[in-house]
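Let's sit down with a protein and look at its sequence and fold side by side. Once you have written the record down, we can walk along the chain together.
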Amino acid sequence: SQLEDEISTLRQVLAAKEKHLVEIKQKLGISLMNELKQNFSKSWHDMQTTSAYKKTHETLSHAGQKATAAISNVGTAISKKFGDMSYSIRHSISMPAMRNSPTFKSFEEKVETTVTSLKTKVGGTSHTGGSFEEVLSSTAHASAQSSLAGTRLPESEEELQC
């Protein structure tokens, strides 16, 4: 019984002290949001100083640098391939000469494979496979139709010059 009375007294004292703490914080202008910000900042700082965080940060930083270098190399290779193709276009007498180049053949095969794969995944197999030229032609035709549908042709020479 005496122990229960002491516990009750301690609870009353604790409640009074908590109420007093709230009043002091209100007078000092400390809000719950400020306390949360401080706790978060302290926790973030404590986490950043751990060895696990430092090791992870170093590893991810190193991986990021390697990924950046790899992407840069891929970009350079693609640029070189397109440069080779544009050189071939500029210096060839006709389009058939470019179409017979190894770079274009490789590109054409990859596009045909991709188109076939997409046709299979999207709509099953089509009744005709269609060559690369047919696909390009139909795509160009569809693109021209959609761009013509949304544009207005100039009515006078003045509009054309603007």
User: Anything to note?
Assistant: Residues 1-49 form one domain. Helices lie at 2-28, 32-48, 51-91, 95-99, 102-123, 132-149, 157-161. The chain is about 85% helix and 0% strand.
